Amino acid sequence: MDPEDLDPPREPAPSLAANLEAMSETELKDHMAFLEGELERTRRTLEERRQAKQGADSLFSL
Questions:
Q1: Cα gap 31→37, rounded to integer Å
Q2: Distance of alpha carbon 37 from alpha carbon 50, whole angstroms
Q3: 3-state percent breakdown (helix, strand, coil) of the chain, nearest 5
Q4: Which residue, among 7, 31, 29, 30, has the nearest Cα to 17 in the 3D structure?
Q5: CB 20 within 8 A of CB 27
Q6: Which DSSP symbol is given to 7?
Q7: Domain spans of the chain?
Q8: In 3D, which of 9, 27, 26 has the Cα closest to residue 18?
Q9: With CB atoms 3.0 to 4.6 Å apart as the test, which of 7, 17, 23, 39 could cross-link to 27 if both were Cys?
Q10: How many CB atoms lie within 10 A of CB 28?
């Protein structure tokens, strides 16, 4: 079983539930920059996990 399967479901981050219609252009740009940063952080974490799994798989496939 994957340990991630044991994590409780997460609530969406407040920024994802933001009312975009109520935001100014500046707020929308700031919101977009925040989301792009989160996307990059998520990509890095995913790549780190992929590399760790690949390393573990290579150890146990000998």
A1: 10
A2: 20
A3: 75, 0, 25
A4: 31
A5: no
A6: S
A7: 25-62
A8: 27
A9: 23
A10: 13
Say whether 24 sits in a helix, a strand or coil: coil
Tokens 């573990």 -> residue: 56
Sign of CA dihedral 23, 28, 31, 32: positive
Residue 57 structure tokens = 């798989």
pLDDT in tens, 1-57: 566 666 666 666 656 778 999 999 999 999 999 999 999 999 999 999 999 999 999
Give the angle subtended at the CA of 44 by the CAs of 41 and 45, to the nearest 5°: 85
Q: Any idea of the CA torsion for 51, 44, 11, 27, to the nearest 10 degrees?
A: -170
